[in-house]
């Protein structure tokens, strides 16, 4: 698994608005790391800079360095980054509501590969998310919010990622479901060895599963450390963990 390293990354929207101001961070091979911060802090923009969803056609310019192993990601378009093993699960799930879960998985499966491989990967997704198999014939648009999030993660697994980036997987889910999905994310990280970069406003839940976290405010990293250390930090408790 290659290591992801951002060094002094800046993102400018609409030529004037500096949304990301010199972010440096690392995700070691097989690691599980969170980017925590309030709404609008710049977490989603950071993920988009990594996956390449911020081209000039979107009025955004990314500067600095983003390396994935020995690849210079900023010189590669988004499809090449997916081929390199990076997958980005966008906020809001973005599944195909008019297709069944299985059809969604098929749509995410890279073309030109064998149907046997598809079956293998699909079954692997179903071992993590048996509910998707049970809901086999339902259109994905009728799945619950939690099931849709499971499907979004399942789709990402169909690309056989080496690093999976998840934007707010807890959004709109009950605390119990958040726990369930986070436990599965942790399991995927441990069993598959796939690295995880998790963006969350829900710091409480995220710090239960990640090893290391970065706190983002106003486009900058203001603090980082191991989950254990951050949980004990009084500022983190006050501002991110709801007063501990
Ligand atoms: P959220 O959880 O709401 O997604 P976030 O921490 O992910 O928050 P970003 O979405 O990265 O934050 O936004 C960072 C800043 O960039 C915000 O001030 C936001 O308004 C601005 N921004 C985001 N997307 C664009 C865009 N396409 N054009 C201009 N400004 C943008």
TrEMBL record:
Organism phylogeny: Bacteria, Pseudomonadati, Pseudomonadota, Alphaproteobacteria, Rhodospirillales
Domain ABC transporter per the UniProt entry, residue ranges: 4-243
GO molecular function: ATP binding
Name of the protein in its database record: ABC transporter ATP-binding protein
InterPro entries cross-referenced by the UniProt entry: AAA+_ATPase (IPR003593), ABC_transporter-like_ATP-bd (IPR003439), ABC_transporter-like_CS (IPR017871), BCAA_Transport_ATP-bd_LivF (IPR052156), P-loop_NTPase (IPR027417)
Family: Belongs to the ABC transporter superfamily.
Native species: Aquibaculum arenosum
Keywords: Amino-acid transport, ATP-binding, Nucleotide-binding, Transport
